[in-house]
Design brief:
Helix content is about 40%, strand content about 20%. It is of the alpha+beta class. Among the domains are: about 95-320, Sandwich (Immunoglobulin-like), CATH 2.60.40.1730; about 450-590, Neutral Protease, domain 2 (Orthogonal Bundle), CATH 1.10.390; about 590-685, Immunoglobulin-like (Sandwich). A seven-stranded mixed sheet has the order 4-7-2-1-10-13-12, with no helix packed on it. The chain has a five-stranded mixed sheet with strand order 15-16-17-19-18, covered by helices on one side. Strands 8-9-14-11 form a four-stranded antiparallel sheet. The radius of gyration is 28 Å and the shape is globular. The structure holds zinc ion. The site of zinc ion has 8 residues, from helix 6 and helix 7.
């Protein structure tokens, strides 16, 4: 599944408007950014600036912007302090109760392995709303064939909330009668005791009918969505989202990734719809069970081919109105051919080609890369109006948000176009990572997601080599991993002992996706791409159609390393010979190291320590976390000096300190060359000065400058470095040595973290704005002087980024030009606007305009057909500078569907003065939200909203609120928000005055 990353645009109205969140580069649940600027009333544009910057930064940095991170600890026991703040549900889960309040006979989240499913025969008959009827319901019947692997008289499987079952029968070769039945809602389990034990190898058939409402607000299981077609008529559809634990909400099943089986599906639908499944349609026959149809001759039954063996979370089906159209193509591969279909409403029929061009390149490429065939005869991809994640990799039927599938050349920005390619590549990579080889259990989700994230870049790199995708890794996921994993309340990549569905949901976070992929990137740098590919081929082919664990993967890499290098190789005597030992220190420990290097004569002295954003976090939260590695890591360190230009290696093998001797006395040292290591770096002040000088001369490339900026700002944030270092490093960007915008994205993200804390000081805001305008001057003019046709992909992204920063700081050249374009366009909407600037133009129009401009966009939302434009319009609607408009918008949040409500809220939260209002609204309506929406994925984002609060009052208020709520899957991110607030408080206490005076000094010299 793709998260994600990451988020920019907020939907405003209902599904039929086509508003939706902008999504990150992966299928991860939607991320909400929470940076903000706190503007004084007289400097509102600067506030806008920070907001827009945020959007820009988020767009560019994708998920980097999260101040909060999430997760709890596990490679370590929890402290009493943390435990006491965990959600009440978590605390009371010691005994699971059945519907009548008695203890469940099965108390484990895991199913017993005595009965294993072999096949499912599933029939569904969805009834979607039609004229005069608003409710919808799904009737179904399932027959499960089970293999008795060890004798038992208990049949235990998942039945999700809201499912009503009837006509349950159990059959076998010899008679079996049901003796008792118990339903346990807290574990979604049905427990049936039968009259005798099965015998090993005996086959059992469990058949039952079921019925469940098809809901619209809860975006999982089998759910309904609506949209407006090109004639503005309302259309209904229904589709699935099962991962991780929602297949049980669609139909009764053995809902664990390791319990793979085949699936046969039949869909009974009326003639006005069509249906899709993981597998191709075998045939359609007449049926007579469409009870809502007056003319039964319009009732059809679609019968699909039997699926391959797969996990329940990958099952997918959709019932679509005839308005849906598809672009079909037979994609040839070196091993055969695959029928590919890209599906969307007819109004978007001309926006499917880009997705097809990505797919027809990436699908055959991955097949060759992994030396393993794509095993299905077809691959369908459909865009749907409402989706909790960015996309979902269902085998043969990938489901996307519109924004991650449809490319509209008139409205899709360069960054969004790249995001579409990344998400498609990510989901196709999952057809191997996750679908063919699946993790054994959700505690190793990273095996699915981290590889999909890393290989999405390899796939897009193959699709468009000129996009320099591998250079974007640092800014798009490594920086996010470093941010999230700097909190005490982070968690190890592998979290053994997940014991609650909420804990499973909470695994879909930056750690599984981004820390995992950053770790693979580090491994790639250590063992080399050739060895990495060989290891992946071994792993995928060895465990095809089965499940695997992290240790299986590391063993495959070790084997590949030996096959490639024998006993020699570049690391013959290094820890790399035992990769499992190396990787264990990174996957089973929370956080990562800060590596400090000092020059002493001709020696380099290294020291590693656990890095925490709140240095005294363990005492504040009374943590008793422990680690079998003592919070030390096996760290590969790449370094260069003034006399060593080709990076050399040194390993810290769980040592706290290490000294090496060089053949020269270096003037400087730069470690973590190309930022491939998953750690932060610290130098002595004199060394930093030398690195600043070299950056000014253009000595380092974009990734290293981005890494230096990230580390310097972060160390200054925690008072380990003078603020002058990151600011002067940032100043080196004014010479425009670098073609990429990534250092800008990192620097502005870091500055935007500070924005909210100085926003009350108009002088400081003015100084900061003036300073940034000065740095921006030459790079901005250089990029704007280039002709459109001459710009590379990277330069387009740079232009988009610098434009956004320019608006943020009220740079007159850009803001005046964009506002003028807005006025011309308002006078005549056929005036062409450049896609990369439309969003800024719309936002400036609303911000500088009046309520009639806001109303204009609100009305426009009902007229436009492009989902890409709808995204920009929604973004603009959240930019009003009118107090009443914003207030009414906040008060109407609960009238929207969950995806829209939380997307808008996230955007409003980034605006000065509105964050408080939004959060107060959530606090007042918390219980209603929990009841109305399925908060699973959303909660982890909502609980991050307050991460930018920065007063002791805020901290106490949040602590109290979180302590008294059932936070479900949001409990980790709630604690991370608290930790971020504490970090902000610390920054104000130690750095605020120094920062202001240094910026004052810089600005007054202009
Ligand atoms: Zn994914």
């Amino acid at each position: 599944m793709e998260n994600v990353e990451e988020v920019q645009i907020l939907p405003l109205k209902s599904a039929s408007d086509g508003c939706e969140n902008h999504v990150s580069s992966s299928d991860k649940p939607q991320q909400q950014q929470s940076s903000q600027a706190k503007p004084s009333s007289s400097k509102r544009l600067l506030a806008l600036a920070f907001l827009l910057l945020l959007i820009a930064v988020i767009t560019i940095v994708i998920l980097l912007g999260l101040l909060a991170s999430r997760s709890c600890d596990n490679g370590a026991s929890e402290s009493d302090g943390l435990q006491s703040r965990r959600s009440p549900k978590s605390l009371t889960r010691a005994v699971y109760l059945d519907e009548s309040g008695k203890a469940c006979q099965h108390q484990d989240i895991r199913l017993p392995k005595s009965l294993l499913p072999i096949s499912y025969q599933l029939l569904v008959r969805p009834v979607l709303p039609s004229q005069g009827q608003k409710t919808s319901v799904n009737f179904g019947r399932v027959k499960m064939m089970l293999n008795c692997s060890r004798p038992t008289d208990a049949i235990i499987f998942h039945v999700g909330a809201g499912i009503r079952i009837s006509d349950l029968t159990v059959t076998a070769a010899q008679r079996l009668d049901e003796v008792s039945r118990q339903r346990c809602p807290s574990l979604d389990l049905l427990y049936i005791r039968v009259s005798r034990q099965c015998t090993t190898g005996e086959l059992l058939n469990v058949s039952l009918s079921f019925e469940r409402e098809i809901e619209g607000d809860k975006l999982d299981g089998f759910y309904m969505a609506k949209y407006k077609d090109k004639n503005r008529a309302l259309r209904y559809m229904a589709s699935t989202h099962m991962e991780p634990v929602s297949a049980r909400k669609a139909f009764p099943c053995f809902d664990e990734p390791e319990m793979k089986a085949t699936f046969d599906l039949e869909v009974i639908r009326d003639w006005r719809y069509k249906s899709l499944f993981n597998m191709p349609l075998a045939r359609t026959v007449p049926d007579t069970r469409c009870s809502h149809l007056t003319n039964q001759s319009g009732c059809h039954r679609d019968i699909f081919q039997t699926s391959v063996v797969m996990s329940t979370y990958l099952v997918a089906y959709a019932v679509l109105p005839m308005d849906y159209v598809s672009l079909q193509k037979v994609v040839k591969t070196s091993r055969g051919s695959i029928q590919v279909g890209i599906w969307a409403p007819s109004s978007s029929q001309n926006q499917l080609d880009f997705a097809m061009s990505v797919t027809e390149k990436v699908l055959p490429y991955f097949e060759d890369l992994f030396n393993l065939s794509y095993p299905l005869p077809k691959l369908d991809m459909i865009g749907v109006p409402q989706f909790a994640a960015g996309a979902m990799e269902n085998w043969g039927l990938i489901i996307y948000r519109f924004s991650t599938l449809l490319y509209d050349p008139n409205y899709t920005t360069t960054i969004d176009k790249q995001t579409i390619a990344e998400v498609i590549s990510h989901e196709i990579a999952h057809q191997w990572f996750g679908n063919i080889v699946t993790m054994k259990w959700w505690d190793e989700l990273w095996l699915n997601e981290a590889f999909a994230v890393f290989t999405q870049y390899i796939g897009v790199d193959a699709f468009k080599p000129g996009w320099s995708m591998m250079d974007r890794c640092y800014v798009e996921f490594v920086a996010s991993a470093l941010q999230t994993d700097s909190l005490l309340h982070s968690h190890p990549i592998i979290v053994p002992g997940l014991s609650d569905p909420n804990e499973i949901e909470s695994m879909f976070d930056d750690i599984s996706y981004f820390k995992g992929s950053a770790l693979i990137r580090m491994l790639d740098a250590v063992i080399g791409r050739r060895t990495l590919k060989r290891g992946l081929i071994i792993y995928l082919n060895r465990f095809a159609w089965r499940n695997a664990a992290s240790s299986d993967l590391f063993a495959a890499f070790s084997e590949a390393y030996m096959l490639e290098n024998g006993d020699s190789g570049p690391h013959a005597n290094s820890p790399v010979r035992n990769l499992t030992r190396v990787m264990d220190t990174w996957t089973t420990q929370v956080n990562y190291p800060l590596v400090t290097v000092r020059i002493r004569g001709n020696k380099l002295h290294f020291r590693q320590e656990r890095f925490l954003l709140v240095p005294n976090a363990t005492s504040i939260w009374k943590s008793n976390q422990t680690s079998r590695f003592g919070f030390r890591w096996i760290v590969p360190i790449w370094y260069v000096t003034d006399r060593i230009s080709e990076p050399r290696w040194v390993w810290m093998d769980l040592e706290e300190e290490k000294t090496i001797e060089l053949d020269h006395q270096p003037k400087f040292v730069k470690i973590n060359f190309n930022q491939t290591g998953l750690y932060r770096c610290s130098y002595e002040q004199s060394n930093w000065r030398e690195l600043i000088r070299l950056s000014r001369e253009g000595y380092f490339d974009s990734t290293d400058v981005a890494g230096l900026l990230n580390d310097a700002f972060t160390l200054a944030y925690i008072n380990r470095l003078n603020i002058s270092v990151p600011i002067e490093l940032f100043e080196t960007l004014q010479d425009d040595h670098l073609s990429s915008a990534t250092p800008w994205s990192i620097a502005m993200h870091k500055i935007s973290e500070i924005g909210p804390m100085i926003a009350g000081d108009q002088q400081a805001m003015t100084d900061l704005s003036k300073f940034i305008v000065k740095i921006l001057n030459r790079p901005l003019r250089n990029i704007l002087s280039k002709k459109e046709a001459e710009l590379t992909h990277m330069e387009r992204i740079k232009r988009q980024t610098l434009n956004q920063i320019a608006v943020m700081v009220d740079e007159p050249l850009v803001t005046n030009k964009l506002f003028k374009m807005y006025q011309q366009w308002r006078a005549n909407t056929s005036f062409p606007l450049p896609p990369d600037e439309i969003e800024l133009i719309y936002e400036i129009g609303v911000y500088k305009g009046n309520t009639s401009d806001w109303q204009f966009f609100k009305n426009r939302l009902n007229e436009i057909e492009s989902y890409s434009e709808a995204k920009h319009v929604c973004s603009a609607l959240a930019m009003s500078s009118d107090v009443d408009t914003n207030y009414r918008l906040i008060q109407s949040l609960l009238n929207l569907n969950s995806q829209e409500a939380f997307s808008i809220a996230a955007k409003l939260c980034r605006r000065s003065g509105l964050r408080e209002l939004v959060w107060s609204y959530f606090e007042r309506n918390w219980d209603i939200m929990m009841e109305r929406y399925d908060m699973a994925f959303t909660l982890t984002e909502v609980t991050k909203f307050p991460a930018e609060f920065h007063t002791e009052y805020d901290y106490q208020r949040l602590s109290s609120f979180f302590a008294n709520r059932d936070l479900q899957s949001g409990w980790r991110s709630a604690f991370q928000s608290l930790e971020s607030v504490k970090a902000n408080i610390n920054w104000i206490a130690h750095n605020l005055d120094d920062f202001k005076s240094f910026i004052r000094q810089k600005a007054s010299g202009l």
